[in-house]
Amino acid sequence: MGLQWVKNMAGFDLSDKDMKDIPHPTAELVLHVTLKTVQAFGLIGTVVIGPIKGFRGPPGNLKRQMTRFGKWGAILGLAAGPAMTYGRLSSINFDENGIYDRCYRLRHNRGQVRVDRGSLVGVVAGAGLFSAVRMCPVLGSLVGMSTGVISMAAYNLSLPKK
User: Fold this and answer.
1) Closest CA to 126 of 148, 154, 155, 111
2) Which of 41, 53, 57, 91 is the most buried (most CB within 10 A)?
3) d(CA 18, CA 70)
4) Residues 104, 125: Cα–Cα separation, whole Å
5) What is the pLDDT of residue 88?
6) pLDDT tens, 91-120?
């Protein structure tokens, strides 16, 4: 990762030369997979398992369970991402050129970048909004991330196919 990765994630238009500037492709790939596992496990914990468990308890239990399972899902995603990446890379004997190529293609995948950007903006916006109304910022960040992922995935599906 480097400055070009940050610029791409922020939505700047980059030249092909800048897109090819990938100083640490393995770290960038590990970050990508980890971000995806945090998104997936956090979303499942927050909007699937948390509500299932939350509706079974007393009033107020829903927020507590969504926070609990979403937080543990995100933490599990942080651990699973690197393990999944290195497990996959070792099982298929990926070389440095293959990792670089994968990172280059991921940078050009606008739909993937949109989902990642939406989740990151959602984390910050959700935590800020929930804090402003005196609610749990952890739950806000989980709801924001989930909303960002789902909304950007829906937006990607609405785009005309090329």
Assistant:
1) 148
2) 41
3) 36
4) 29
5) 87
6) 777 788 889 999 999 999 999 999 999 999
